[in-house]
Every structure is written in structure tokens, then in C-alpha cells.
TrEMBL record:
It catalyses: cyclobutadipyrimidine (in DNA) = 2 pyrimidine residues (in DNA). FAD binds at Y227, T239, S240, R241, L242, S243, F271, D371, A372, D373. Residues 12-137 form the Photolyase/cryptochrome alpha/beta domain. Belongs to the DNA photolyase family. The lineage of its organism: Bacteria, Pseudomonadati, Pseudomonadota, Alphaproteobacteria, Holosporales. The keyword Aminoacyl-tRNA synthetase does not apply. PANTHER family: CRYPTOCHROME, CRYPTOCHROME CIRCADIAN CLOCK 5 ISOFORM X1. It comes from Caedimonas varicaedens. This is Deoxyribodipyrimidine photo-lyase. Its cofactor is (6R)-5,10-methylene-5,6,7,8-tetrahydrofolate; FAD.
Amino acid sequence: MIDRERLMDQKSPAILWLRQDLRLADNIALEAVSHHLFFAVYIWDDEDPWSPGGASRWWLHKSLLSLHRSFQERGVQLILRKGKPLQVLKHLVQETKACAVYWNRCYEPYVIKRDQEIKSSLKQEGIFCQSFKGSLLTEPWEMQTTTKGAYQVFTPFWNKLKEISFARPLSVPDLQGFKPSVFSESLEEWHFNPTLWGRGLEEIWTPGEQGAWDNLSGFLNDGIQSYASRRDIPSGQYTSRLSPHLHWGEISPTQIWHEALLSCGKDSLPFLRQLGWREFSCHLLFHFPHMPFQNLRVSFSDFPWQDNPDHLKIWQTGQTGYPLVDAGMRELWHTGWMHNRVRMIVASFLVKHLLIPWQQGKEWFWDTLVDADLANNAASWQWVAGSGADAAPYFRIFNPVLQSEKFDPHGLYIKQWVPELQALNSPHIHSPWKASAQILEKAGVTLGKTYPFPLVDHAFARQRALDAFAR
Ligand SMILES: Cc1cc2nc3c(=O)[nH]c(=O)nc-3n(C[C@H](O)[C@H](O)[C@H](O)COP(=O)(O)OP(=O)(O)OC[C@H]3O[C@@H](n4cnc5c(N)ncnc54)[C@H](O)[C@@H]3O)c2cc1C
């Protein structure tokens, strides 16, 4: 039973439980808690099977610092705790006599189950609990096919989504901070800020709500108009780079949706469509919770994958001998991000040229991407592998050389990330093993020494993949 008297008693504080919603504006749980005196808590859940990987932890560290500062300016305290969320929340309720807990929903299968248990347990103790939609345009269960089922094909999903008119984003409410006399762990003690690797990430990213808005306005001023024609070019910044900000909820999809439409109306649809893919991935994860580890298409269950730790390592470290693949894997390691087109190419190379299970690529991405997201990562890997919903057919095998010639024609992206090929020009930079000894010598490239020979021959690998698929 909810103790309504306690809820209305202005002296009892409420708790805002922050998760993937690290922002002040358009935060519906914050709006709800702002009617109380309140404090915020971020809980690091030790038992989460999909605990963020290394690059995401770095992001989280910086984003919490930024949010802490924003709260501090408004007199709100942010408490950090590690442990089981139910226990942590129960302790905080006891320590502060809090009457209510508010949060925005997340959709990872483990989190859905955990949060349901937390809600019912706290409610039994008379604590008011309310959760909200804070990180999606539509709830995964709201979108239904005409037969009331889950969507498995993107186009009809998108056709429906794009017709919805979404409520205007909320502004930052007036906040009434409460100073609980409880301890907070220190962010430094969580050791999420690697000094060496973090340096590369720091050069590129500004985690936090302000950083998200800077990226969005930069993109709206100079990018969205040419998005459709340039989004596949990896050299240069032709996409929004909002993915990590979106994952951690430093900006909401509703804010982006409205700002993009305001800025260039229907011309923004090719960009907004990508937000549609984000919604679709989450829809799939909700309805098919095994998606992060099991093929969605059962026909893939007996696929003859090859476990090859040496090849996996060569791929991870960007030493495959295919310049575009290597450039992508090195960009990932250095910046925690990789261009979408290149993600598709490197993923296809791992799964189809090397026959390594997509789950192993997905794990590497999980640890190294600043935007690692269970739904987007799993759905995209299954899309590339051909085992997912509405996936690329398995027999469509990217040729990494043709892709390189098409999307990086002057080799600018390759030169940035594979400096040992700097002095090679097109067409040789796309396939150095085809260049004459004279050209290689002039460019200072010794295959097998300064840059590797191709790990596998494309024609051989393509045929092997097709045979495996046929079997
Ligand atoms: C193998 C593979 C793994 C991926 N793993 C992730 C991941 O872990 N996290 C992640 O956010 N994206 C993932 N993506 C999707 C996509 O590559 C990134 O979202 C995109 O590159 C982010 O850059 P951006 O913000 O500039 O995107 P923009 O092109 O500016 O798009 C705007 C937003 O739309 C969303 N979006 C764009 N493309 C996709 C897509 N294909 N699927 C779902 N959402 C999309 C992102 O939130 C993105 O920020 C993956 C793609 C592949 C092929």
C-alpha cells in the first residue's frame, strides 16, 4: 500500500534514480520528481550481465561529472553507489525517509525484469514508484503490426513511426534540492577513467548534455542538408555523431526529432530515418530478448562458424591487410567510434571472410565503442551476418576493395588511420598487394614488413562463405 500521506508530506524527499537519462531537459522522471524535495542517485549494478564495456565506462565517468556539476548549480545532490539496485534504493529510503522513487525506463531484458521486481518490492513497503518513457520516441509495445504482432521488417515500422506527431520536449523544471546526510562513493574510486586509452577519446568527445547539444547544433548548421548524399563517406564529419549522447540519454530522440524538423522540415527525413532504426532495434530487443546472443533466424543455428583467436586478434588490431578494414578497426580503438559504413564492412569481413561468429565481433564492439548499445549493437551485427530480422542476405558479401574505392575514393580515410600507407595513392591504396614493386618501393611500403599481406584472398573467402551458407 502506498502511504499517500507520506507522499504528500513536503518534508519527505523523493529519489530520482538516474540510468540512461543523464540530462536535465526533456527528462520526464526529473519533471515528476521536481514536485518534491529530492536528490538523485546513480547505481552501478555489479550484477548486470551487460555491464558497460571499457569505452562506455569512460563516457559514463565524464557524463556523471558533467551532470553532477549541472545539479550542483541547482542545489541538487547526486549520490553514487555500487551494489544491487534494490538494496541500495531500500537503504536510501530508510536513511532519508524518502517517500517516492522515479526513473526513466531502459529496455535491456535483464533490466526490465530487475526493475519490475524493484517496483513491486518498494511498493509493498509503501514507497510510491513511477517509471517513464525517457529514451525512445515510442514504447516498444506501442508499435504493432496490423495483426497486433511485433514488427520484423523495418520499412512498415518506419512508415508508421514517421507519421506520429510527438509531444514537444519538456524544458528544465525548477528543482528543489534536498541534502540527504548519506554517503556517496567517489567517481574516482570506480576507476572508469583509463589514463592512456582515455586520451584518444578525450581528443574527440565532450560527454554531457552540453556536448550533445553542441554536436546537434553543429550538425544542423552544417551537415543535415547533405546527410543523404554524404552519410556514407567516412573521411570527414558528415553524420551527427550523436550516438553515445543518445545512448546515455544526454539528449532525447524527441529533442533531436523536433530540432531537426524545425531546422529543415521534411529534408531531415533521411536523418530521422536513422533514429527510426534505433527505435526498431529496441523494438526487436524487447520482443526477441535472446537477440544479443542467439540468431533470430533459426536456419543459422547450424552455421559452420570457425573459432580462430589468431584471426580475431588480427581483425581487432587492424592488421588484416585490407586497408579500409584496418582503418576502421584503428579508428575504433583510437576514438571509441567508427563510421557506420565502415562498421558494416569490418563486420561483414569478420563474419563472412573469416567465418568468425558475429557474437565475437559484437563483444569487441561492446568493449571498445563509446556508443555501445545492447539493442543497436546486437541488431546491427545480426543484420550484417544475415541472421537477423530484415537482415542483409547472407550471400551479399561486401568486397572490401570495391567498398573502399567507392566510399573512400582518394584514400583520405585510409591515410588518416593507416599512416604506413600515406604515400600510396588511388587505386593502389585500396589494394597494396596489387601494386608493382616499384610503386610500393617509392611509397616506402614493404608488404609483410611495414604493412601485412591480405589475411585471406577475397575470391576464395567469398566462395568459402557461400559454400558454408549453402551447407
Ligand atoms: C556492426 C554494427 C554495430 C553497431 N553497433 C552500434 C552500437 O552499439 N550503438 C549504436 O548506437 N549504433 C550502433 N551501430 C549503428 C550505427 O553504426 C551508429 O549508430 C552510427 O554510426 C552512429 O553515428 P552517428 O551518431 O553519427 O549516426 P547518424 O547517422 O547521425 O544517425 C543518428 C542516430 O541514429 C541512430 N542510428 C544510426 N544508424 C543506426 C543503425 N544502423 N541502427 C540503429 N541506430 C542507428 C544512432 O543513434 C545515431 O546516433 C552499429 C552498426 C553496425 C553495422
